[in-house]
Amino acid sequence: MKQVMPGKEKIWHQTFRIGIFLKGLDGVLEMIGGTLLWLASPALVNAVVFVLTQHELSTDPHDLIANFLVRAAQNLSASSQIFAAVYLLLHGTVKASLVVALWKEKIRAYPAAILLFIIFGVYQFYRYFYDHSLFLLFLTLLDIAVVGLTWKEYLQLKRKID
User: Fold this and answer.
1) I need a surface site. Which of 67, 78, 81, 124 has the fewest CB within 10 A?
2) How much is the pLDDT for 113?
3) In a domain, 124, yes or no
4) Is-above-0.90 flag for pTM?
5) How far apart are the C-alpha atoms of 91 and 31, rounded to whole Å?
6) Are 16 and 152 contacting, i.e. CB atoms less than 8 angstroms apart?
7) Rounded CA gap, 44 and 24, in Å?
8) Who contacts 41 (Cβ-Cβ below 8 Å, separation ≥6)?
9) pLDDT, one tens digit for every residue, the chain (162 residues)
């Protein structure tokens, strides 16, 4: 029988669901990106980045994101491409798997998700100071929020079980 939640708890629960949905979507996109990176040649990566950034750089030659993508594609070696592909595939698979387990309210997934999201967040925060990517900062803030929401959900689920 489904338990009816008070209004505030329902809002927190829905916020948790939205947060883990976003994490799951991010995981799936990482898996797709990793697969594409694995299959693509460095020349193809350069060509795709050129097509994607050409318009933006023609209107704003100093665009930070477009210039970052162009430099990253130009400096992409075969070994770094393989590393990035494997990293994205593994990271995305772990993240998506955890999200599925959280969605199904598997009690053991909560501590694992909290630990791994903290580790991912710390690594992303470290990378932020290395390359100042606002996207990484956003992902880190999302990780912090999802960790807090996951902890709250975990405590609530444990109370329901006990």
Assistant:
1) 78
2) 94
3) yes
4) no
5) 8
6) yes
7) 28
8) none
9) 455 567 888 899 899 999 999 999 999 999 999 999 899 888 888 888 889 899 888 998 888 888 888 888 888 787 888 888 998 999 999 999 999 999 999 999 999 999 998 998 888 888 888 777 777 788 788 889 999 999 999 999 998 887
How far apart (Å, rounded) are the C-alpha atoms in residues 107 and 57? 48
Residue 22 lies in a domain: yes
Number of structural domains, the chain?
A: 1
Helices marked H in 40-133: 42-59, 64-74, 78-103, 109-131
DSSP 1: -
Q: What is the DSSP letter of 40?
A: S
Residue 149: Cβ within 10 Å count: 19
Q: What are phi and psi of 5, to 5 degrees?
A: -95, 145
Residue with tokens 């594609």: 73
The string of DSSP codes covering 133-147 is -HHHHHHHHHHHHHH
In a domain, 114, yes or no: yes
First to last CA, the chain: 16
Residue 162 in any domain: the answer is no
Q: Give yes or no for a contact between 37 and 45, defined as CB atoms under 8 angstroms apart.
A: yes
